[in-house]
Amino acid sequence: MSITQTSREMALDGSPRGKHPRYLPSRVLNRTAVLAAAVVILFAVSVLLGSYTVTIPDFFKIVIAHLTGGDKIPGASFIVMENKLPRAVIGTMIGVAFGLAGALFQTMLRNPLASPDVIGISYGASAAAVIAIVIFGASGAVVSGAALAGALAVAALIYAISTGGAIRGTSRGNAAGNRLVLAGVGIAAALHAVVNFLMTRADIRTAADALVWLNGSLNSANWDRAGVLFLALVVLVPAVAVIAGPLRILELGDDAAAGLGIRVNAARLSLVIIAVTLAAVATAAAGPVSFVAFLAGPIARRFTGKASLPASALVGALIVLAADYFAANLAPLLLDGTVLPVGVITGALGAPFLLWLLVTANRKDA
């Protein structure tokens, strides 16, 4: 999309032409509030309902007893505090992280296909985690650390390839959207082959453990992982708020952004670092939950009528919570007791959405 075309479609405040700018912010705010309320409701459903139901009074009794060391309700206290609640908390946080990461990439590159799981960053985490599991026999925090390091290393490689290795303040050094996506897809294919090779060489038990991680799962959710993820988001979410201003200007194109005083290379590098770190910490906590980052941004844009980072974060949380509730509570009823990893459900949602997005894009271009 050219700068001229972009300026025709967007008003000066970033709102689409044809919609009065005074009314659009209120619409976005109202619909974002609806998404926030939906996240709260679905969070409560995940904790209170399911295979083991808990009443609201009992839930508060359990939490208060856990915090104060009071009398616990046998069985219920363990199920809520060690299973349901940390699972819902981590599900919400990884949804927020994936949603923000996907929206940052898609907005920065002006490409709806640019998300961490499409351009290869999640594959970097997967390859590193499988190497740790299959070759070194690692588990737990070591696998999470390997996944984090793998995602960051692959992201650095993709960025270096996409910039042509010549960041010297010229346009040649810009991480052009198409080049970054193509570089990511190529590296993802190579890493996918590495993962498949390692899986064929592993014994059946090790391969099963690696497969569960590769699909993305909240079954191993605990308070230690929740604490690490929370601390990461405490740092990263304010960083997203700081970089949101330059992000909106970058949508106009590199030349227009530079003319408005934005240091394009530095701003884009900061955005990439923040988005990659968001995706990496979420992947390290629960595995590569596929298509959440890809789905959140476009769904939020269609619901609110405008690209919105808060709405994307909330949609990401909704997708993960809904998919995990279905996988843990409804899928066993349909599949003779089989509990599915959350990534299987999000993958089933993402594939048809990707095809629909491609079909609608082709119709617009025709």
Summarize the topology.
Layout: H1 3-9, H2 24-48, H3 56-68, H4 76-109, H5 121-134, H6 141-162, H7 177-201, H8 204-215, H9 223-250, H10 254-259, H11 264-286, H12 292-304, H13 309-334, H14 342-365
Helix pairs in contact: 2-4, 2-13, 3-4, 4-9, 4-11, 4-12, 4-13, 5-6, 5-7, 5-8, 6-7, 6-11, 9-11, 12-13, 13-14
* Helical residue percent band: over 70%
Figure out the total of helices.
Answer: 14
State the major sheet: none
CATH architecture: Orthogonal Bundle
String of helices and strands: HHHHHHHHHHHHHH
The general outline is: globular
Briefly note the structural class of the backbone: mainly alpha
Q: Could you tell me the radius of gyration in angstroms?
A: 21 Å
Instruction: Please give the CATH class.
Output: Mainly Alpha
Mean pLDDT: 84
Number of strands: 0
Poorly predicted regions are 1-23, 165-175
Summarize the structure.
The protein is mostly helical. The protein has helices at residues 3-9, 24-48, 56-68, 76-109, 121-134, 141-162, 177-201, 204-215, 223-250, 254-259, 264-286, 292-304, 309-334, 342-365. Helices cover 74% and strands 0% of the residues.
Describe this structure in words.
- It is a single chain.
- The protein is mainly α.
- The protein has a single domain (3-365), classed as ABC transporter involved in vitamin B12 uptake, BtuC, CATH 1.10.3470.10.
- 74% of the residues lie in helices and 0% in strands.
- It has helices spanning 3-9, 24-48, 56-68, 76-109, 121-134, 141-162, 177-201, 204-215, 223-250, 254-259, 264-286, 292-304, 309-334, 342-365.
- The longest helix is centred in the N-terminal third of the chain and has 34 residues, at 76-109.
- It is globular, with a radius of gyration of 21 Å.
- The model is unreliable at 1-23 and 165-175 (pLDDT under 50).
